[in-house]
Write a structure and sequence with these properties.
By secondary structure, the protein is of the alpha/beta class. The protein has three domains: 220 residues, Rossmann fold (3-Layer(aba) Sandwich), CATH 3.40.50; 75 residues, Orthogonal Bundle (Helix Hairpins); 150 residues, Heat Shock Protein 90. Helices cover 56% and strands 14% of the residues. The strands form three sheets. Strands 2-1-3-4-5 form a five-stranded parallel β-sheet, sandwiched between helices. A hairpin with a 3-residue loop joins β11 and β12. The radius of gyration is 43 Å and the shape is elongated. The two termini are 78 Å apart. About 1% of the residues have low confidence.
Length: 476
Protein backbone atom coordinates (compact mmCIF):
# COMPACT_ATOMS: atom_id res chain seq x y z
CA UNK A 1 0.00 0.00 0.00
CA UNK A 2 1.36 3.43 -0.94
CA UNK A 3 2.41 5.70 1.90
CA UNK A 4 1.48 9.26 2.87
CA UNK A 5 3.84 10.85 5.41
CA UNK A 6 2.25 13.11 8.08
CA UNK A 7 4.62 15.39 10.06
CA UNK A 8 3.18 17.15 13.16
CA UNK A 9 4.29 17.43 16.78
CA UNK A 10 0.62 17.29 17.81
CA UNK A 11 -0.77 13.81 17.12
CA UNK A 12 -4.42 14.75 17.75
CA UNK A 13 -5.28 14.57 14.02
CA UNK A 14 -3.41 11.29 13.36
CA UNK A 15 -6.16 8.74 14.24
CA UNK A 16 -8.82 10.45 12.11
CA UNK A 17 -6.39 11.06 9.22
CA UNK A 18 -5.24 7.43 9.35
CA UNK A 19 -8.88 6.31 8.90
CA UNK A 20 -9.42 8.85 6.12
CA UNK A 21 -6.34 7.81 4.14
CA UNK A 22 -6.96 4.08 4.69
CA UNK A 23 -10.41 4.57 3.14
CA UNK A 24 -8.67 6.24 0.18
CA UNK A 25 -6.26 3.28 -0.16
CA UNK A 26 -3.17 4.78 1.49
CA UNK A 27 -1.18 3.90 4.60
CA UNK A 28 -0.29 6.81 6.91
CA UNK A 29 3.27 7.13 8.25
CA UNK A 30 3.86 9.62 11.07
CA UNK A 31 6.80 11.71 12.30
CA UNK A 32 6.73 14.28 15.13
CA UNK A 33 9.30 16.69 13.59
CA UNK A 34 11.21 17.46 10.42
CA UNK A 35 14.37 15.58 11.34
CA UNK A 36 12.53 12.28 11.92
CA UNK A 37 10.41 12.91 8.81
CA UNK A 38 13.53 12.95 6.60
CA UNK A 39 14.67 9.65 8.10
CA UNK A 40 11.25 8.00 7.57
CA UNK A 41 10.94 9.33 3.99
CA UNK A 42 14.42 8.18 2.97
CA UNK A 43 13.63 4.67 4.22
CA UNK A 44 10.09 4.53 2.76
CA UNK A 45 9.53 7.30 0.15
CA UNK A 46 5.86 8.41 0.26
CA UNK A 47 3.65 9.58 -2.61
CA UNK A 48 2.94 12.77 -0.62
CA UNK A 49 4.22 14.55 2.47
CA UNK A 50 1.91 16.70 4.64
CA UNK A 51 3.71 18.84 7.21
CA UNK A 52 2.90 21.25 10.03
CA UNK A 53 5.19 24.29 10.34
CA UNK A 54 5.79 24.98 14.02
CA UNK A 55 7.60 21.91 15.46
CA UNK A 56 10.58 21.23 17.74
CA UNK A 57 14.01 20.06 16.53
CA UNK A 58 13.30 20.93 12.86
CA UNK A 59 10.27 22.97 11.79
CA UNK A 60 8.26 22.66 8.56
CA UNK A 61 10.07 25.41 6.65
CA UNK A 62 13.49 23.84 7.22
CA UNK A 63 12.05 20.40 6.39
CA UNK A 64 10.69 21.71 3.07
CA UNK A 65 14.03 23.37 2.30
CA UNK A 66 16.01 20.15 2.95
CA UNK A 67 13.35 18.02 1.22
CA UNK A 68 13.98 19.80 -2.08
CA UNK A 69 17.73 19.48 -1.70
CA UNK A 70 17.41 15.68 -1.59
CA UNK A 71 17.50 14.21 -5.12
CA UNK A 72 15.38 11.22 -4.04
CA UNK A 73 12.65 13.34 -2.41
CA UNK A 74 12.51 16.67 -4.23
CA UNK A 75 9.94 15.56 -6.83
CA UNK A 76 7.49 14.17 -4.22
CA UNK A 77 4.64 16.68 -3.61
CA UNK A 78 5.00 18.72 -0.41
CA UNK A 79 1.90 20.12 1.31
CA UNK A 80 1.85 22.42 4.35
CA UNK A 81 -1.03 21.78 6.84
CA UNK A 82 -0.88 24.40 9.57
CA UNK A 83 -3.06 26.30 12.04
CA UNK A 84 -0.48 29.10 12.28
CA UNK A 85 1.62 30.99 9.76
CA UNK A 86 -1.57 31.59 7.76
CA UNK A 87 -0.71 35.18 6.84
CA UNK A 88 -0.27 35.88 3.09
CA UNK A 89 3.44 36.63 3.42
CA UNK A 90 4.04 33.31 5.24
CA UNK A 91 2.05 31.34 2.66
CA UNK A 92 4.03 33.07 -0.12
CA UNK A 93 7.28 32.13 1.61
CA UNK A 94 6.12 28.51 1.97
CA UNK A 95 5.37 28.29 -1.74
CA UNK A 96 8.62 30.06 -2.65
CA UNK A 97 10.70 27.43 -0.87
CA UNK A 98 9.03 24.60 -2.79
CA UNK A 99 5.64 23.73 -1.20
CA UNK A 100 2.99 22.56 -3.69
CA UNK A 101 0.04 23.50 -1.50
CA UNK A 102 -0.74 25.33 1.76
CA UNK A 103 -3.89 24.00 3.53
CA UNK A 104 -5.08 25.63 6.81
CA UNK A 105 -5.96 23.15 9.59
CA UNK A 106 -9.47 24.55 9.90
CA UNK A 107 -10.27 23.41 6.33
CA UNK A 108 -13.40 21.24 6.03
CA UNK A 109 -12.46 17.55 6.04
CA UNK A 110 -14.21 16.87 2.72
CA UNK A 111 -12.41 19.79 1.07
CA UNK A 112 -9.11 18.62 2.59
CA UNK A 113 -9.68 15.08 1.26
CA UNK A 114 -10.48 16.37 -2.23
CA UNK A 115 -7.36 18.58 -2.34
CA UNK A 116 -5.08 15.71 -1.26
CA UNK A 117 -6.57 13.30 -3.83
CA UNK A 118 -6.24 15.93 -6.57
CA UNK A 119 -2.54 16.51 -5.79
CA UNK A 120 -1.75 12.77 -5.71
CA UNK A 121 -3.65 12.11 -8.96
CA UNK A 122 -1.83 14.94 -10.75
CA UNK A 123 1.48 13.70 -9.39
CA UNK A 124 0.85 10.16 -10.62
CA UNK A 125 -0.38 11.31 -14.04
CA UNK A 126 2.55 13.68 -14.47
CA UNK A 127 0.21 16.69 -14.60
CA UNK A 128 1.48 18.17 -11.35
CA UNK A 129 3.81 21.06 -12.02
CA UNK A 130 6.44 20.45 -9.40
CA UNK A 131 6.92 23.73 -7.58
CA UNK A 132 10.53 24.55 -8.31
CA UNK A 133 9.86 28.30 -8.62
CA UNK A 134 13.04 30.28 -8.84
CA UNK A 135 14.95 28.53 -6.13
CA UNK A 136 16.24 30.83 -3.41
CA UNK A 137 19.90 30.64 -2.78
CA UNK A 138 20.99 29.78 0.72
CA UNK A 139 21.38 33.39 1.74
CA UNK A 140 17.89 34.38 0.53
CA UNK A 141 16.30 31.33 2.10
CA UNK A 142 17.80 31.87 5.54
CA UNK A 143 17.16 35.58 5.35
CA UNK A 144 13.47 35.02 4.59
CA UNK A 145 13.31 32.09 7.00
CA UNK A 146 14.67 34.19 9.86
CA UNK A 147 12.38 37.10 9.03
CA UNK A 148 9.39 34.75 8.97
CA UNK A 149 10.27 33.24 12.34
CA UNK A 150 10.98 36.64 13.80
CA UNK A 151 7.71 38.06 12.47
CA UNK A 152 5.75 35.14 13.91
CA UNK A 153 7.55 35.33 17.24
CA UNK A 154 6.96 39.08 17.39
CA UNK A 155 3.24 38.46 16.80
CA UNK A 156 3.23 35.87 19.58
CA UNK A 157 5.01 38.19 21.96
CA UNK A 158 2.40 40.88 21.35
CA UNK A 159 -0.39 38.36 21.97
CA UNK A 160 1.26 37.10 25.15
CA UNK A 161 1.72 40.66 26.38
CA UNK A 162 -2.06 41.12 26.17
CA UNK A 163 -2.70 38.07 28.38
CA UNK A 164 -2.08 40.07 31.54
CA UNK A 165 -0.71 43.57 31.51
CA UNK A 166 -0.34 43.48 35.29
CA UNK A 167 2.44 40.89 35.13
CA UNK A 168 5.40 43.24 35.03
CA UNK A 169 7.95 40.45 35.03
CA UNK A 170 6.38 38.87 31.97
CA UNK A 171 6.26 42.22 30.17
CA UNK A 172 9.94 42.76 30.89
CA UNK A 173 10.78 39.35 29.47
CA UNK A 174 8.73 40.12 26.37
CA UNK A 175 10.53 43.41 25.96
CA UNK A 176 13.96 41.84 26.36
CA UNK A 177 12.99 39.04 24.00
CA UNK A 178 11.95 41.50 21.30
CA UNK A 179 15.20 43.40 21.75
CA UNK A 180 17.19 40.18 21.52
CA UNK A 181 15.19 39.13 18.46
CA UNK A 182 16.08 42.41 16.81
CA UNK A 183 19.74 41.85 17.68
CA UNK A 184 19.54 38.31 16.36
CA UNK A 185 17.96 39.59 13.17
CA UNK A 186 20.77 42.10 12.58
CA UNK A 187 23.39 39.47 13.47
CA UNK A 188 21.80 36.93 11.14
CA UNK A 189 21.68 39.38 8.24
CA UNK A 190 25.35 40.24 8.67
CA UNK A 191 26.47 36.61 8.98
CA UNK A 192 24.87 35.27 5.82
CA UNK A 193 27.70 36.07 3.40
CA UNK A 194 28.83 32.49 3.46
CA UNK A 195 25.99 29.96 3.12
CA UNK A 196 27.48 27.19 5.27
CA UNK A 197 28.47 29.47 8.14
CA UNK A 198 25.19 31.39 7.84
CA UNK A 199 23.24 28.18 8.28
CA UNK A 200 25.16 27.31 11.46
CA UNK A 201 24.56 30.80 12.84
CA UNK A 202 20.85 30.64 12.06
CA UNK A 203 20.60 27.26 13.78
CA UNK A 204 22.15 28.75 16.91
CA UNK A 205 19.81 31.71 16.70
CA UNK A 206 16.88 29.35 16.24
CA UNK A 207 17.88 27.45 19.38
CA UNK A 208 18.01 30.68 21.35
CA UNK A 209 14.64 31.72 19.98
CA UNK A 210 13.10 28.37 20.91
CA UNK A 211 14.56 28.73 24.38
CA UNK A 212 13.03 32.20 24.76
CA UNK A 213 9.71 30.94 23.44
CA UNK A 214 9.74 28.07 25.95
CA UNK A 215 10.51 30.48 28.78
CA UNK A 216 7.71 32.79 27.69
CA UNK A 217 5.23 29.93 27.34
CA UNK A 218 6.26 28.66 30.77
CA UNK A 219 5.64 32.07 32.29
CA UNK A 220 2.31 32.31 30.52
CA UNK A 221 1.40 28.89 31.93
CA UNK A 222 2.35 30.03 35.43
CA UNK A 223 0.19 33.10 34.95
CA UNK A 224 -2.73 30.94 33.87
CA UNK A 225 -2.32 28.75 36.98
CA UNK A 226 -2.27 31.88 39.18
CA UNK A 227 -5.41 33.13 37.49
CA UNK A 228 -7.12 29.78 38.08
CA UNK A 229 -6.06 29.84 41.74
CA UNK A 230 -7.43 33.38 42.05
CA UNK A 231 -10.72 32.29 40.49
CA UNK A 232 -10.92 29.37 42.94
CA UNK A 233 -10.29 31.76 45.84
CA UNK A 234 -13.01 34.06 44.54
CA UNK A 235 -15.44 31.13 44.43
CA UNK A 236 -14.51 30.18 48.00
CA UNK A 237 -15.01 33.77 49.14
CA UNK A 238 -18.38 33.91 47.41
CA UNK A 239 -19.47 30.67 49.10
CA UNK A 240 -18.26 31.97 52.46
CA UNK A 241 -20.15 35.21 51.89
CA UNK A 242 -23.34 33.34 51.03
CA UNK A 243 -22.94 31.15 54.11
CA UNK A 244 -22.37 34.20 56.28
CA UNK A 245 -25.42 35.92 54.84
CA UNK A 246 -27.49 32.77 55.40
CA UNK A 247 -26.23 32.55 59.00
CA UNK A 248 -27.05 36.21 59.55
CA UNK A 249 -30.57 35.70 58.21
CA UNK A 250 -30.95 32.64 60.44
CA UNK A 251 -29.71 34.63 63.44
CA UNK A 252 -32.15 37.45 62.70
CA UNK A 253 -35.04 35.00 62.32
CA UNK A 254 -34.00 33.24 65.54
CA UNK A 255 -33.83 36.47 67.56
CA UNK A 256 -37.22 37.55 66.25
CA UNK A 257 -38.64 34.09 66.98
CA UNK A 258 -37.11 33.93 70.47
CA UNK A 259 -38.51 37.37 71.22
CA UNK A 260 -41.93 36.16 70.10
CA UNK A 261 -41.69 32.82 71.96
CA UNK A 262 -40.59 34.50 75.22
CA UNK A 263 -42.95 37.48 74.98
CA UNK A 264 -46.06 35.33 74.33
CA UNK A 265 -46.04 33.35 77.63
CA UNK A 266 -44.80 36.41 79.53
CA UNK A 267 -47.80 38.41 78.33
CA UNK A 268 -50.05 35.54 79.49
CA UNK A 269 -48.41 35.41 82.91
CA UNK A 270 -48.55 39.18 83.40
CA UNK A 271 -52.13 39.42 82.12
CA UNK A 272 -53.53 36.63 84.28
CA UNK A 273 -51.57 37.92 87.30
CA UNK A 274 -53.22 41.33 86.89
CA UNK A 275 -56.67 39.74 86.60
CA UNK A 276 -56.09 37.58 89.71
CA UNK A 277 -54.96 40.62 91.67
CA UNK A 278 -58.27 42.38 91.11
CA UNK A 279 -60.05 39.96 93.45
CA UNK A 280 -63.53 40.05 91.89
CA UNK A 281 -63.30 36.49 90.62
CA UNK A 282 -65.11 33.28 91.34
CA UNK A 283 -63.26 30.23 92.60
CA UNK A 284 -63.56 28.51 89.21
CA UNK A 285 -62.25 31.63 87.40
CA UNK A 286 -59.30 31.85 89.75
CA UNK A 287 -58.54 28.17 89.15
CA UNK A 288 -58.81 28.61 85.36
CA UNK A 289 -56.55 31.69 85.32
CA UNK A 290 -54.03 30.03 87.64
CA UNK A 291 -53.89 27.02 85.29
CA UNK A 292 -53.27 29.33 82.31
CA UNK A 293 -50.51 31.10 84.24
CA UNK A 294 -48.97 27.71 85.08
CA UNK A 295 -49.22 26.68 81.42
CA UNK A 296 -47.51 29.88 80.24
CA UNK A 297 -44.84 29.54 82.93
CA UNK A 298 -44.14 25.93 81.93
CA UNK A 299 -43.89 26.95 78.26
CA UNK A 300 -41.42 29.71 79.15
CA UNK A 301 -39.40 27.42 81.42
CA UNK A 302 -39.28 24.68 78.75
CA UNK A 303 -38.01 27.21 76.19
CA UNK A 304 -35.25 28.47 78.49
CA UNK A 305 -34.27 24.89 79.43
CA UNK A 306 -34.06 23.94 75.74
CA UNK A 307 -31.86 26.97 74.97
CA UNK A 308 -29.51 26.04 77.84
CA UNK A 309 -29.55 22.36 76.83
CA UNK A 310 -28.76 23.23 73.21
CA UNK A 311 -25.77 25.30 74.33
CA UNK A 312 -24.51 22.43 76.51
CA UNK A 313 -24.90 19.93 73.67
CA UNK A 314 -23.10 22.19 71.17
CA UNK A 315 -20.17 22.63 73.60
CA UNK A 316 -20.01 18.94 74.60
CA UNK A 317 -20.97 19.50 78.25
CA UNK A 318 -23.64 16.77 78.35
CA UNK A 319 -22.60 13.33 79.61
CA UNK A 320 -24.34 9.99 79.20
CA UNK A 321 -25.86 8.20 82.20
CA UNK A 322 -25.83 4.59 81.03
CA UNK A 323 -27.83 1.81 82.65
CA UNK A 324 -29.74 -1.31 81.70
CA UNK A 325 -33.51 -0.81 81.48
CA UNK A 326 -36.58 -2.31 79.86
CA UNK A 327 -37.42 -0.65 76.56
CA UNK A 328 -41.07 -1.82 76.53
CA UNK A 329 -41.62 -0.15 79.91
CA UNK A 330 -40.15 3.09 78.54
CA UNK A 331 -42.48 2.92 75.52
CA UNK A 332 -45.49 2.36 77.81
CA UNK A 333 -44.55 5.38 79.95
CA UNK A 334 -44.21 7.64 76.89
CA UNK A 335 -47.52 6.32 75.57
CA UNK A 336 -49.26 7.09 78.89
CA UNK A 337 -47.74 10.57 78.97
CA UNK A 338 -49.19 11.61 75.60
CA UNK A 339 -52.42 9.58 75.45
CA UNK A 340 -54.54 12.23 77.19
CA UNK A 341 -53.26 14.99 74.89
CA UNK A 342 -53.89 12.84 71.81
CA UNK A 343 -57.44 11.99 72.94
CA UNK A 344 -58.12 15.64 73.70
CA UNK A 345 -57.15 16.54 70.10
CA UNK A 346 -59.03 13.51 68.72
CA UNK A 347 -55.81 12.01 67.37
CA UNK A 348 -55.22 8.28 67.43
CA UNK A 349 -52.06 7.24 69.29
CA UNK A 350 -50.70 3.80 68.33
CA UNK A 351 -47.73 1.81 69.64
CA UNK A 352 -45.72 -0.87 67.83
CA UNK A 353 -43.23 -3.01 69.80
CA UNK A 354 -41.44 -6.02 68.38
CA UNK A 355 -40.00 -7.81 71.42
CA UNK A 356 -41.53 -9.41 74.47
CA UNK A 357 -40.94 -7.61 77.75
CA UNK A 358 -38.36 -10.19 78.85
CA UNK A 359 -36.33 -9.65 75.67
CA UNK A 360 -36.51 -5.86 75.44
CA UNK A 361 -33.67 -4.86 77.77
CA UNK A 362 -31.20 -2.24 76.46
CA UNK A 363 -28.05 -0.67 77.90
CA UNK A 364 -28.24 3.07 77.18
CA UNK A 365 -29.34 6.42 78.63
CA UNK A 366 -33.03 6.01 79.53
CA UNK A 367 -33.73 9.72 80.09
CA UNK A 368 -32.29 10.77 76.75
CA UNK A 369 -34.20 8.15 74.74
CA UNK A 370 -37.36 9.28 76.58
CA UNK A 371 -36.58 12.89 75.69
CA UNK A 372 -35.97 11.99 72.01
CA UNK A 373 -39.32 10.20 71.72
CA UNK A 374 -41.10 12.94 73.69
CA UNK A 375 -39.78 15.70 71.43
CA UNK A 376 -40.73 13.81 68.27
CA UNK A 377 -44.23 12.92 69.55
CA UNK A 378 -44.79 16.51 70.78
CA UNK A 379 -43.89 17.76 67.30
CA UNK A 380 -46.22 15.19 65.73
CA UNK A 381 -49.12 16.32 67.98
CA UNK A 382 -48.37 19.96 67.19
CA UNK A 383 -48.52 19.47 63.42
CA UNK A 384 -51.31 16.85 63.20
CA UNK A 385 -54.90 18.09 63.28
CA UNK A 386 -56.57 14.80 62.33
CA UNK A 387 -55.66 11.18 61.72
CA UNK A 388 -53.18 9.33 63.91
CA UNK A 389 -49.68 9.11 65.35
CA UNK A 390 -47.76 5.84 65.57
CA UNK A 391 -44.48 5.15 67.32
CA UNK A 392 -42.39 2.18 68.35
CA UNK A 393 -39.28 0.23 67.42
CA UNK A 394 -37.79 -2.72 65.51
CA UNK A 395 -34.68 -4.72 66.36
CA UNK A 396 -32.09 -4.66 63.58
CA UNK A 397 -29.02 -6.81 64.30
CA UNK A 398 -27.27 -5.01 67.20
CA UNK A 399 -29.34 -1.85 67.24
CA UNK A 400 -32.93 -0.69 67.71
CA UNK A 401 -34.62 1.35 64.98
CA UNK A 402 -37.28 3.69 66.42
CA UNK A 403 -39.93 5.55 64.46
CA UNK A 404 -42.53 8.27 65.01
CA UNK A 405 -45.06 8.54 62.20
CA UNK A 406 -47.87 11.09 61.82
CA UNK A 407 -50.53 12.12 59.30
CA UNK A 408 -49.89 15.83 59.79
CA UNK A 409 -48.99 18.70 57.46
CA UNK A 410 -45.70 17.17 56.31
CA UNK A 411 -42.44 18.84 55.29
CA UNK A 412 -41.51 20.10 51.83
CA UNK A 413 -38.69 18.29 50.01
CA UNK A 414 -36.78 21.59 49.83
CA UNK A 415 -36.77 22.05 53.61
CA UNK A 416 -36.37 18.39 54.62
CA UNK A 417 -32.49 18.40 54.47
CA UNK A 418 -32.46 21.38 56.91
CA UNK A 419 -35.01 20.00 59.38
CA UNK A 420 -32.41 19.09 62.06
CA UNK A 421 -30.44 22.36 61.80
CA UNK A 422 -30.43 24.70 64.80
CA UNK A 423 -33.26 27.30 64.80
CA UNK A 424 -34.42 26.00 61.44
CA UNK A 425 -38.17 26.39 60.74
CA UNK A 426 -40.01 26.01 57.45
CA UNK A 427 -42.38 28.84 58.37
CA UNK A 428 -40.48 31.68 60.09
CA UNK A 429 -43.32 34.22 60.09
CA UNK A 430 -44.28 35.49 63.55
CA UNK A 431 -47.97 35.03 62.72
CA UNK A 432 -47.55 31.35 61.79
CA UNK A 433 -50.15 28.83 63.02
CA UNK A 434 -47.72 26.71 65.06
CA UNK A 435 -45.61 27.79 68.03
CA UNK A 436 -42.02 26.61 68.42
CA UNK A 437 -38.41 27.77 68.63
CA UNK A 438 -36.73 25.51 66.07
CA UNK A 439 -34.61 23.92 68.83
CA UNK A 440 -36.37 20.61 69.58
CA UNK A 441 -35.20 18.60 66.55
CA UNK A 442 -31.64 19.88 67.00
CA UNK A 443 -31.67 18.52 70.57
CA UNK A 444 -33.02 15.21 69.25
CA UNK A 445 -30.25 14.98 66.63
CA UNK A 446 -27.52 15.78 69.18
CA UNK A 447 -28.88 13.21 71.64
CA UNK A 448 -28.96 10.52 68.92
CA UNK A 449 -25.38 11.39 67.90
CA UNK A 450 -24.29 11.26 71.55
CA UNK A 451 -25.83 7.78 71.90
CA UNK A 452 -23.99 6.55 68.78
CA UNK A 453 -27.03 6.36 66.51
CA UNK A 454 -28.37 7.85 63.31
CA UNK A 455 -31.46 9.96 62.58
CA UNK A 456 -33.34 10.81 59.38
CA UNK A 457 -36.80 11.79 58.20
CA UNK A 458 -39.14 11.00 55.34
CA UNK A 459 -42.02 13.30 54.52
CA UNK A 460 -44.40 14.53 51.86
CA UNK A 461 -46.09 17.89 52.08
CA UNK A 462 -49.74 17.49 53.13
CA UNK A 463 -49.43 13.74 53.80
CA UNK A 464 -47.44 13.51 57.03
CA UNK A 465 -43.93 12.69 58.21
CA UNK A 466 -41.96 9.75 59.62
CA UNK A 467 -38.88 10.28 61.77
CA UNK A 468 -36.47 7.37 62.25
CA UNK A 469 -33.52 7.01 64.62
CA UNK A 470 -31.29 4.14 65.69
CA UNK A 471 -29.76 3.39 69.11
CA UNK A 472 -27.16 0.63 69.71
CA UNK A 473 -28.47 -2.21 71.87
CA UNK A 474 -25.43 -1.75 74.07
CA UNK A 475 -24.14 1.83 74.29
CA UNK A 476 -20.54 2.30 75.35
Amino acid sequence: MEKILMVDDEDIFIPSLRILFNNLGYELNYAPNGEEALTVARNEPPVLIISDIQMPVMDGFELCHQWHQDDNLKDIPFVFFSATYNEPENIEFALNIGADKFIPKDTDIDVFSSLIQEIIQKFKSGDLAINNHDRMNEFEYYKNYSETLIRKLEDKMVALTKVNKEQENLIEIHKRTLEELHSFKIAAMSMMEDADEARKEVEEINKELNKKISETISLAHELEIKNQEQEAQNVELMIAKEQAEAANKLKTAFLANMSHEIRTPMIGIIGFSRILSEGNLSKNEKKEYAEEMNKSSKRLLDLLNNIILTSQLETGHIELELSEFNLNNLIDEVYSTYLESANKNKIGLNVSIELRDDDSNINSDEDKITQILSNLISNALKFTSNGSISFGYHLLSNEFEFFVKDTGIGISKEFLPKVFELFSQEDTALNRSYEGSGIGLTIVRNYVDLLGGRIWAESEKGKGSTFYFTIPKICT
